[in-house]
Structures are given as structure tokens and as C-alpha cells.
Design a protein that fits this description.
With 121 residues, the protein is α/β, with parallel strands linked by helices. It has a single domain, classed as 2,3-Dihydroxybiphenyl 1,2-Dioxygenase, domain 1 (Roll), CATH 3.10.180.10. It is built from 2 helices and 8 strands; from the N terminus they run E-H-E-E-E-E-H-E-E-E. The strands form 2 sheets. It has a 4-stranded mixed beta sheet, covered by helices on one side. A 4-stranded mixed beta sheet has the order 5-8-7-6, with helices on one face. Strand 2 and strand 3 form a beta hairpin. It is globular, with a radius of gyration of 15 Å.
């Protein structure tokens, strides 16, 4: 028995808009929308999935981390190439690429709902 992977679940005001942002800015594939109007969506890139659930009306969107910290950490190969791709796609890169004291080279992006995702190797 072993754990194999995890899919972060971000609660957002508009799941279609969120999924399209991840497709257009971060190179993910949209796997589908659920219900009409959509209340859940999934995106995937290289076997990694992120899920989006629709927030309750009036709920504040985005991350609880405002100044530091991340909502998800994704291990990658080729972080510098990924940085170049994200830059060309117009992703909001808020840090990096930078070599951290703990030995990882990272970039951090912020999505349109305020979630911060680190990509490190």
C-alpha cells in the first residue's frame, strides 16, 4: 500500500474562469465541468490535477496567505524552462526563479483568485 498523488482543491467564485486561467496561463488541460451552471472543474498537466469548487455566494475568494506562504507546492523538472513558458503565457510570477537556502530552485505564481503556487526542483 502507498499514497500516489494529491489534487489540491481550490474554492473559487467561478470554476470556468479558474480552469480557463490554468489552461491559458499555466498550460493545464481542462478535464471537464460538472453541473449546469458549473460548480466543479478539474485541470491536469503531466498527470498532476487541480480541482476547483464553486464558493458560496458572497464568500471571499483566494488564499489565506497574503504576504508569505503558498497554497500548493508542485515538484517539477526544468523549473527554469517552466519559468520561461509561464512568462510567455503571461502568468503572474511573484517570485523567482530563485535558489532557496533549503536547496530548491523555485518560482511562485499567483492565480486570478489569489492562490499562490510554488514550482520547485
Amino acid at each position: 500500500m502507498r499514497l500516489k498523488s494529491i489534487a489540491p482543491h481550490f474554492v473559487v467564485p467561478d470554476v470556468v474562469r479558474a480552469a480557463e486561467h490554468y489552461r491559458d496561463k499555466l498550460g493545464f488541460e481542462i478535464l471537464g465541468y460538472f453541473a449546469e451552471p458549473p460548480v466543479f472543474a478539474m485541470v491536469r498537466r503531466d498527470g498532476l490535477e487541480i480541482h476547483f469548487g464553486k464558493s458560496a455566494e458572497g464568500a471571499a475568494p483566494g488564499s489565506a496567505h497574503r504576504d508569505e506562504g503558498v497554497d500548493a507546492y508542485i515538484w517539477v523538472e526544468g523549473v527554469d524552462d517552466l519559468y520561461e513558458e509561464f512568462k510567455k503565457r503571461g502568468a503572474e510570477i511573484i517570485d523567482g526563479p530563485v535558489q532557496r537556502v533549503y536547496g530548491c530552485r523555485e518560482i511562485v505564481v499567483r492565480d486570478l483568485d489569489g492562490f499562490q503556487i510554488a514550482f520547485g526542483q
